[in-house]
Amino acid sequence: MNDLLMYPAYIDGKDVEHPEGRYVHTVSARAVLEDTMPALALKRDLDAGIVDPRTAGPAVVGGCALADDRMANDALEAAARAAPEWARVPLRDRLEIGVRIGERLREKRDDIVELLVAEGQPRDLAGPTLDEYWRADFSAETLTWCATQMQTTKHRGCGGHAVVRRVPDGVVCVNPPQNASTPNALFGATALLAGNAVVVRAPRGVPLATTHALREVVVPVLEDAGAPTGVLNILCGPPMTDLWLKSPHVNDIVYVGGSAKGLQFERDAIAAGKKPVLELAGNDCVVVWADADLDAAAAAITENFRQSGQICNIPNHVIAHPAIADALLDRLVTAAAATKPGYPDEPGVVLTPVLMAQAYFADIADAVRRGAELLHGGRRLEVDGSPSDTGFFVEPAVLRIDGLDRARDMPAVREETFSPLLPVVVPEEHDGLFDEVLRFVNANRYGLRNSFWVQDEELVAAVAAGVTNGGVVNVNDSHSAFRPFLPTHGGTGLTGGVFGEANYLMLRTTHLQGVNINRGGAR
Fold it and tell me: Quick one: the chain helix, strand, coil %, rounded to 5?
């Protein structure tokens, strides 16, 4: 993609500019890493209108119009007008739109990947992530299953019947996170398929790929289908949750963020009469048993290093059976040592800058004080992989922690660390160890994903029957990958809040209703 991409806001089916022409510009992540201060100064001058993006050079990728309060309110009003008409469109037609969105997402995949890379996501992650999203959220397999949950009809004699159906909530506002904005915005768009109108706020830090994906993938499909204007509105601007909470037009808010702020938002939303759909933090556990395929397990565990651990659905800690712990740790240390920083457009790169690195170092220091052994990592790195006191990257770290009791209260194990920090807990072997490990997993107060590497069929059955914590439980598979039919989002505890569960947005942004129809009067 060589052309400068400049996107106005999209409100009520029209391009809308900020009244003063203000834009938020994207300067490529490579330019920022190569020469940080001049690149950031260029972005500042572009956003201030001092520099013309058309003459600013190849480091400038594009920009999105900044939305003010009036534009944000107009988007909500447009969505409220469109929602009743859109809800009357037959479900089968909306599902067909979902299939076409998936097809178009595949067609536009490479262009979106280029923008994700420009905004800092490693190329080796960006493409596969998009591929998994369309298969998981827009495949016929997933959409067909969701359709089976939307309506059930029971016929009675004399022509009467009863229906239990899911009815769209109305206007759904989506607040995707900066660390995974585009995939979460596409996930948010699935609320359209249930019959809702949707407003998406692209975050100011990385708005371009998100806006491009929605404008070039979802909008054309809706327009070709004759959807009412206002059914999808796309803005770039500051956080809008306060406005959404106050607006009479808003029914649901999809909030993605940290657990502390997210749970407070849940309370505020309920007080305001809005349905909160939360996608918050994760602190996922991987259990590797004595009979596991260690090479496959190690590959899944090192998904921890993706985007330097700054995504929610990655492994955060490991429980390794003592019989294989040393062999597994050797593999993990080797993998950590081989994982190097680099520019996001380079092959093999999975690490991204860690701007809040103080917590990473604090977690390691605290764990060591509590008896953990640091086997690898714990340094800042420059983009070329050299150690530095000021580097933007941090080295993947592997900790060994002996004993479940010691691990229970260790913040590096108990909390989401949001960095490439991999604590490996090695319990003492004893009768009933597997049951104790299951209790440990079920006690995780986050509850996004858990995964197990075990071959024994009786133990696999025990996992399937006994692990009730979390939105997804994987056995002998990638921890982070999205699979068709299974949910991509959602979980219990600090991940999903009071109403947390595996999350299909088509279902979460609707409500159950029963309809009873008798022919010829009551009997």
Answer: 45, 20, 35
Alpha-carbon distance values, 117 to 55, 112, 407 (Å): 22, 9, 37
Report pLDDT digits (tens) over 125-169.
999 999 998 899 999 999 999 999 999 999 987 778 999 999 999
Contacts of 277 (CB under 8 A, 6+ apart): 252, 253, 254, 255, 503, 505, 508, 509
Question: What whole-number distance in Å separates Cα of residue 523 and Cα of residue 515?
Answer: 17
DSSP string, 305-361: GGGGG-STTSEEEEEE-TTTHHHHHHHHHHHHHH-----TTSTT------TTTHHHH
- Phi, psi of 49, rounded to the nearest 5 degrees: 80, 10
CA separation for the pair 185, 130 (Å, rounded): 12
What are residue 24's DSSP bridge partners?
64
Q: Give the containing element (helix H, strand E) for 93.
A: helix 91-107
Q: How far apart are CA 65 and CA 63, in angstroms?
A: 7
How far apart (Å, rounded) are the C-alpha atoms in residues 355 and 368?
23
Backbone angles phi, psi at 496, to 5 degrees: -120, 0
Sequence letter at residue 222: L
Helix residue ranges, H only, 166-291:
181-189, 208-213, 219-224, 241-246, 259-271
Residue 365, both tokens: 């220091």
CB 35 within 8 A of CB 45: no
Enter the tokens of residue 432: 């009933």
CA 430 – CA 462 distance, rounded (Å): 18
Work out the pLDDT band at 425, boundaries 50, 70, 90.
Answer: very high
C-alpha to C-alpha distances, 314 to 15, 29, 367, 482, nearest whole angstrom? 38, 23, 20, 12
Question: Which amino acid type is present at position 433?
Answer: L
Whole-angstrom Cα distance, residue 363 to residue 53?
A: 42
Q: What whole-number distance in Å separates Cα of residue 307 and Cα of residue 315?
A: 12
Half-sphere exposure of 274 (CA within 13 A, CB side): 28
C-alpha span between 426 and 424 (Å, rounded): 6
pLDDT digits (tens, 9 = 90+) for 229-269: 999 999 999 999 999 999 999 999 999 999 999 999 999 99
Q: Exposed, middle or buried, 357 (CB in 10 Å: 0-12/13-18/19+)? A: middle
Give the separation between CA 449 and CA 303, rounded to whole angstroms: 13
Contacts 24+ apart (CB under 8 A), 188-191: 188/254, 188/505, 189/101, 189/214, 189/218, 189/232, 190/98, 190/137, 190/138, 190/504, 190/505, 190/506, 191/252, 191/254, 191/505, 191/506, 191/509
Q: Cα-flanking dihedrals φ and ψ of residue 431, to 5°?
A: -60, 135
What's the rounded Cα separation, in Å, for the pair 30 and 345? 8
